[in-house]
């Protein structure tokens, strides 16, 4: 089995550092439901996905920049780390930091990240532990598994801003991570029960199919919630109309101008984006119908929730 395939299999059979943030509701990319779906084998991800390949490529570059900036030496981890008491808690660490090239005993963990320049505001003072919470708990997770006291996060924003942050071990938070992760595994993964507090996106993933003409009776509580929802929807529509009116006034003021200012401050711009290219599917279908048919693929649309107005 290839190394990447082995790690992918272990990730499905255990909880890792990249999972704990989602379980705690701290991730911008995944929810606890996403992790549950992955660990119970209900959804599978390709190990050859472009973001994963780019992440592996960028990891080496960021690690190299860390060495150049700090003068520290790095070694590759010996493999997947596993918790001594709970074998379903694991971690795949990017690099280990050693004192020199002849030393194999690590004293710090290194986590390599890349981020969009627009995300810089989510990171604090250089050298501090002011990092996005999902990355903070990920590093604390690795310190728990390695029994080391410090982790550095090396992050590259775009291609011109390289920073290093430091995370120190916190036993109180570590205990919380241990309790929350073991509870998630025993109560949800092993019992094959999805975690609560789900979003609409979570429910779209959980309940992908419907039974034709099946109907259920709502409780009084749910009926009252739908009444509230209708009220919120009406308020939202009123706000959207007010927003549209103001935007229309701005456009009427600008007319053929691109920039609206007030005392040298730019208030708004109205510009055409750069031209983009797309396939003219209608023309392709008309001029090359056989070729068009060869590239058609079925798409399973998500279920659509429609709220009716109550009388």
Written overview of the protein:
It is built from 10 helices and 9 strands. It is of the alpha+beta class. The protein has 2 domains: 3-206, Lambda Exonuclease, Chain A (Alpha-Beta Complex), CATH 3.90.320.10; 218-266. Helix 2 (17-23) packs across helix 5. The N and C termini lie far apart (62 Å). The mean pLDDT is 89.
Can you give me a brief rundown of this structure?
Helix content is 43%, strand content 14%. The protein is built from ten helices and nine strands. The strands form three sheets. It has a five-stranded mixed beta sheet. Strands 2-3 form a two-stranded antiparallel sheet. The protein has a two-stranded antiparallel sheet with strand order 8-9.
SS summary, helix count: 10
Ranges where pLDDT stays below 50 over 5 or more residues in a row are none
Strand line-up across the major sheet: 1-4-5-6-7
| Secondary structure tally: strands | 9
Q: Termini separation (Å)?
A: 62 Å
The ordered string of helix (H) and strand (E) elements is HHHHEEEEEHEEHHHEEHH
- Could you describe the largest sheet, including whether it forms a barrel? 5 strands, mixed
Strand portion = 5-15%
Classify the fold: give the CATH topology of the largest domain: Lambda Exonuclease, Chain A
Radius of gyration: 25 Å
Secondary structure class reads: alpha+beta
Task: Assign the CATH class of the largest domain.
Answer: Alpha Beta
What is the CATH architecture descriptor of the largest domain?
Alpha-Beta Complex
Mean pLDDT over all positions: 89
**What's the helical proportion of residues?**
40-55%
Task: Sum up the overall morphology in one term.
Answer: globular
